[in-house]
Write a structure and sequence with these properties.
The protein contains 10 helices and 10 strands. It has helices spanning 4-12, 16-22, 30-38, 50-55, 69-75, 113-125, 143-149, 163-169, 206-211, 229-240; strands at 24-28, 43-48, 63-66, 84-89, 104-108, 130-133, 157-160, 174-183, 194-198, 214-217.
Length: 243
């Protein structure tokens, strides 16, 4: 039975300071929860409707609690949830976990959770396994980020760290997306490199601009003022995989 204490705890994870303090996060919806259960994340609890558990066996060492869908809606962030949610422990990756044998995407101040989640899902599609977020980015464990990944959060190593510290140790060439950069089709990406994507409103930070080896841009053929950062990341990621 899900106690009032359990309910209060689960609801608290919708707020960043409680997620940070408890080092736990929410995962909602069948797709995300099923991907979570197959991953290396430590799952503490799955809360679901009778229908969800009738379709999905109660396997694993985690707690399983059956509730009404109305309770799921109260506990989580979805406007309606007929299926499930889960509680899992965070992973705290650091700069030491970076694999410098493949391209590394870096998000510099991308604050929209939906964009960060979409980028994680996109990188997963193209087989990239890591992503570095500046502290100004939307938090990796924000429910909207997790929800937007459609399960890809379980396959991407997401590190949040000061970019100044990262740049001080990095040995790879740094390319940053910018409207005034070199056409990316003219750049040689055959060796591993760092690709920095900035926010749509402010672009890359001054610090990043001072560290880049070269600015790159996606060639424009129409009249749109700019590209969504998630779409832009997908275009660059796809281009990199052509080499």
């Amino acid at each position: 039975m899900l106690s009032r204490k359990d309910q209060k705890f689960i609801k608290s994870l919708k707020v960043k300071k409680y997620r940070t303090r408890e080092e736990r996060f929410l995962v909602e919806g069948t797709k995300n929860v099923q991907e979570l259960l197959k991953s290396s994340f430590f799952v503490e609890m799955v809360v679901g409707t009778e229908h969800y558990f009738s379709e999905n066996l109660k396997t694993g060492s985690h707690r399983n609690e059956v509730v009404e869908s109305s309770m799921l809606t109260q506990l989580g962030t979805f406007k309606s949830n007929e299926d499930c949610l889960a509680i899992a422990r965070m992973k705290n990756w650091t700069l030491k976990d970076i694999d410098y044998n493949d391209h590394l995407f870096v998000l510099d101040g991308v604050g929209d959770p939906g964009n960060v989640g979409t980028i994680i899902r996109t990188l997963d599609w193209f087989g990239f396994k890591q992503l570095l977020l500046s502290p100004e980015c939307a938090e990796f464990y924000h429910p909207k980020v997790i929800n937007s990944t459609m399960g890809s959060f379980t396959r991407i190593k997401v590190i949040t760290n000061s970019l100044e510290e990262f740049y001080s140790d990095n040995q790879l060439p740094i390319y940053a997306a910018d409207m005034n950069g070199t056409n990316l089709q003219e750049v040689d990406f055959k060796s591993a490199s760092v690709i920095v994507m900035g926010s749509e409103s402010h672009g890359i930070s001054a610090m990043t601009r001072n560290k880049v080896s070269q600015l790159i841009t996606i060639p424009q053929y129409g009249d749109a003022e700019s590209l969504n950062v998630g779409i832009a990341t997908g275009i660059v990621a796809g281009h990199l995989r052509m080499f």
